[in-house]
Amino acid sequence: MTKLLLPLEPADKLPSPSRRSFLRYTGAGMAITGLLLAGCDDDSEDDNRLDVGSGDTGVLNYAYALEQLEAAFYARVKTGQYYAGANAAEKQILDDLALHELAHANFFKAALGGSAIKALEPEFGAINFDSRDAVLQAAQTFEDLGVAAYNGAGRYIESAANLVIAGKIVSVEARHAALIRDLRGYNTFVGGDVVDLFTPTSATSAPGAGSGTGKEKSKRPAEVLEAANQYLKEGSKLSARSFN
Amino acid sequence: MDLFKIITEIEKVDPEIYDRLDSRRRVFKHFGLAGKAVTAAMLPGLVSGIFQRAYGQTASLSPDIVAVLNLALSLEYLEYYFYDSGLKATGLIPSADRPAFETIRNDESGHIKVLREALGSQAIADPTRAAFDYSGGRGSMVGPFAAALVNDYALFLGSSQAFVDTGVRAYKGGAPILMPNKDLLEAALNIHSVEARHSSHVRTVRRGLAAGQSGQGATTIAGDPSNLSGKTGRPKSWISGTDGGGPSPGTTPSTAPVYGAGNPATGAPTAIFFPAESNTTQAGVDITTNTAGITPAAASEAFDEPLDAATVKSIARNFVVASSALFT
Hints:
- Chain A: InterPro entries: Ferritin-like_SF.
- The complex is a heterodimer.
- Chain A is mostly helical.
- Helix content of chain A is 58%, strand content 5%.
- Chain A has helices at 2-5, 19-26, 28-48, 55-77, 81-85, 88-112, 132-153, 160-184, 221-228; strands at 50-51, 195-196, 199-200, 210-211, 215-216, 238-239.
- Chain B is an all-alpha fold.
- Chain B folds into two domains: 3-55, no CATH class; 62-319.
- In chain B, strand 1 and strand 2 (285-286) form a beta hairpin.
- Chain B is globular, with a radius of gyration of 22 Å.
- Classes of the chains: A mainly alpha, B mainly alpha.
- At the A-B interface, helix 6, helix 7, helix 8, strand 2 and strand 3 of A face helix 5, helix 6, helix 7, helix 8 and helix 11 of B.
């Protein structure tokens, strides 16, 4: 409460009317109430979120959720005007991506059995599926996010077999991501937004001498879900409370 | 004694000090000190503990982990010197593709740095360019891939693909052994996906070259499922079946083992085993029947496969001189 009010402190310095009535008069009081309610809403939204669970079941459900989102995205892409008019290479790529992601989602559903989370309802309203630029930009977002998500979730996996399964999928997601990026801009298959690029100290440096690491920038579940939830309807938005 | 002043001083000689320490705040979390006052009496132990964590991890690495990381490091050297030699070969790599191979070479250099830091004194020595014979001749320098670093760009791309796909499979195979050390596991995963990005790009360039297209034009060429293998094949950016044995299936050495099975090749659904890239059963689930309308090719593409250390070494051993101990 104190923190929220601090930025309004200068109001105290106004001669009159009093701070309280000033707030009422300007509507700032209403805004504060709104902020507080929004804060409460956030909490209750969290409570309404579908939690992926804990342990390996939780990690696999987390992966299942992301794969559902990707599968739904490419299924929708194939009904849009961009896909209808795409060249043979891009059609092949989008057909493959749609199949790969559906195979991933269905695999997790089968592997999880009765422990699987429900089918999620995507919200793609902000994406123009008739536009090549819009579709490829969204595809890049999903693919890059998937790679960062698998890499950041590996540490939570308890069984070696499940780690290998995640590894089998993440490299395919990375192949997707690199090609989508190359479609948007040749030679952008790794970029500074997703990889901590390495710069040699000089042209004659020995291997390993320079700044950066050449590593993908993995993301923890909370960060990934913040991005993914933008594409999920209320009731399908996710949390991963066990994985911090 | 001002801890942050000490760290600031160290930063002058080691700009990555904060990466090592994670962040100022998390340093204290590691010691369970969040929210507690740090007393003068605690400081000596605290400081040595922090730097033991940041710089002195190697003492606690198990022999299995050291072996996995050193195999990865050996593969990174194999790749680094290959790309570096390609970039130094006059007229080999077209100008449109030089930025990509500079990026790839630099990424491998970064991976070498990461692995050397993780291994500390247990890292293998830099084998140098002299340890490698990229012709596949084990020191004769006249093996079937000799022209890859001279004037045969298609062969250069083929060798690149084989090396990087071997790397992707090797990291995947080594990952379970790193599980006891979560930070090393995550570092390896973050290298693994970058290798896969490299493979995707090299394959895209190969499709373009086979169709006379370079630069952005390469991305307009579809993969040819009936012509995935050989030097002028048009592979997809992902591995389809066994890719017909890869860029050079008919030579000795051959690229076919890069896409074939490792050892053991079969196992129970919950076991770790190393099937060929054409595998379509995952954790006991038949991918070809689990998704309506999927082809065996797409079912295999959707999952890459790991490879065991011994098989990785037997592949990589073909590209070092006989006198080198690498990959033995």
